Amino acid sequence: MERTGSQKLLRGLSILNIATATPVALLAGAMVVGGNALATKMAAAGMQLERIMGVSASPEQAGGLAFFVGFGLLLGCIFAIIASVFGMRAADNLDEIKPAWLLAGFGLVGTIAMGIASATHGGMTIGLSFFVVLAALYFWSTNNVMIDQAK
Fold this sequence. Notes:
This protein is mainly alpha-helical.
């Protein structure tokens, strides 16, 4: 069976999603594990952080922030990898598009919410815009495959 253009796009975006989410997940895991260790070493050396996201923070607070941000990123990356696996399966078998479409929709909403939250706090909007565009393209491609499946 010949794949449609939408199926090829979905497969390519799934591979790109896995390729971008995996290194970010590894960095997020390092933040979870190493955030508190770094804060402990900074506190032992008597270091103070002037500002984190516009708020004065002690090393302990910075370690806690690193843990929670890393944990959130790790969960998001795991979700993206699972959604991409479902997308790759759906690209091969049109009957399996509904779970991929649903996960792509949740991923798009979550990514937009994360982008808005980051933008309101002066965060990395350029870096997150890549993931928002990727999530939007991913949802669009799953939606197109779903329309192809309905025909």
